[in-house]
Design brief:
Blueprint lengths: L6 H134 L2 H19 L1
Length: 162
């Protein structure tokens, strides 16, 4: 019975009993905390996976938008080059038409100037011939002879005017 009086034995049994009785709630608390932490980690991993999937989806969308924007920009540049070429061709054609029209007008003016110059030269030649003839007649013909030539010219007028 000496064993029952040993206080170390009773302390050890009390501690073991305390541990045994406390083990259930402590075990629940420990395992519950670990389970809760594991669940939180699992949720964080799922959220991270979802965020990654969303990020990859957004990246794919933005890459597609970028490709579309680049294609649209290329189309705009191509259209602008075609429009510039068309406008250049139209401007060249308009310039050629304008130059042709100006050339025609210049040729017409030259022809008019030539006709006017020819007319002026003829008129001046006639005036000069009349003046020379008058001077010659006045210096080389006497008054009787001048009257006879003037009479002949007057008689010939009706036939020459018709």
């Amino acid at each position: 019975m000496a064993i029952l009086q040993n206080e170390y034995l009773w302390i050890t049994l009390a501690i073991l009993t305390l541990f045994y009785l406390a083990w259930g709630p402590v075990k629940s608390a420990l395992l519950g905390g670990l389970d809760a932490r594991a669940e939180r980690i699992r949720k964080d991993l799922e959220e991270a996976a979802n965020l990654r999937a969303q990020a990859e989806k957004l990246l794919a969308e933005y890459q597609a938008k970028h490709r579309d924007a680049m294609a649209q920009a290329d189309a705009i540049v191509t259209a602008a080059k075609e429009e510039a070429a068309r406008l250049a061709a139209k401007a060249e054609a308009d310039l050629a038409t304008s130059l042709k029209r100006r050339e025609t007008l210049a040729l017409e003016r030259i022809a008019q100037a030539e006709a006017q110059a020819t007319s002026d030269v003829r008129s001046a030649a006639v005036d000069l011939a009349i003046a020379a003839t008058s001077k010659l007649l006045a210096t080389h013909l006497d008054a009787g002879r001048q009257d006879a030539i003037a009479g002949q010219a007057i008689q010939a007028l009706p036939t020459r005017l018709n």
